[in-house]
Amino acid sequence: MSNGISLKELAAELKLAPSTVSRALNDSYEISEATKKKVISMAEKLNYQPNPFARSLRENKSKTIAVIIPERINNFFAQVMDGIEEIAHEHGYHLLVYSTHEDVEKEKKIVSLLQNKRADAIVMSVSSQTSDVSHLVKLYQRDLPIIFFDRVCSDIPTTKFITNDYESAYEGTKHLIQQGCQKIAFLMLAKELSITKERYRGYLDALKEAGMQPEPTFSLHCCRSDEENIQLITELLKSENRPDGILSSVEKLALATYHSVKKTKLSIPDDLKIITFSNMSSAGLLSPSLSTITQPALTIGQECAKLLIKKLTKPRHNELKDQVIVIPSKLTIRESTMAR
């Protein structure tokens, strides 16, 4: 029996109808607890393994969860995917991962592709170019379960998982002020993103509370190109009115800042202190080690998957509520922001 047996063979061994065995294995309310225990016990004894492909055809389900992310080469999104995959695999689902590469046109093509029920549900973080969300509204109207995380779409009435971006940016900016910074810059990719708006709001409020006025040139809009970002940041650091502190809204801009500093006579943290939102495991290995605001990426992924699995297994009893679930980030102080 090491190779397992079929559902019909298991039913014959139990002297039950295959339909009864199937319902027992699927925890149907129509089957008594005694019968369920009997069936499960025999299934384990005889090494019964359900055929996922046959089951998918019967139920008209793909057993697939689509994950749409802005980029793969990002520690945060990689960890979110790990969390989703862990829970999905436990329940017999696999992932179909799409990357928009921060391109809204690619995002629209992916969404159009998924409207044909290629996946049973979607977990998504929107691109930095996404402002018109009509393509996402159409997808939602197809009754395909969808959950957003991190970069969310507020116009879609479904569950959204985020971290406490406002509070984290506020605390990060406050820490820079406490370390003696008087001129603090904020580095961002796209100001339209939900996460950018919240982080920028936290930055501004911390400055206001300290009696500081934000410098217009210190709110630096960057782009996808690392080379262009390094040039932009270098120009800022070489200007007469340069910042002495930086809050970076994403880790790629913090790394760009490290490269930019090498093009100047400045040093971190003596002349410039920097803290960033980042899930980079090597932040502590940089020289100097980088202070970070770490998002609970793995947990966000796990919670997204758990909620979707509940919806997929019992669709009538588990609605995806129009709610925002906040999972706090963690502030880790390292050498890049410590006064010496």
TrEMBL record:
Tagged with keyword Cytoplasm: no
GO molecular function annotation: DNA-binding transcription factor activity; transcription cis-regulatory region binding
Residues in HTH lacI-type domain copies: 5-59
Domain of life (superkingdom): Bacteria
Keywords annotated in UniProt: DNA-binding, Transcription, Transcription regulation
Protein name as it appears in the record: Transcriptional regulator, LacI family
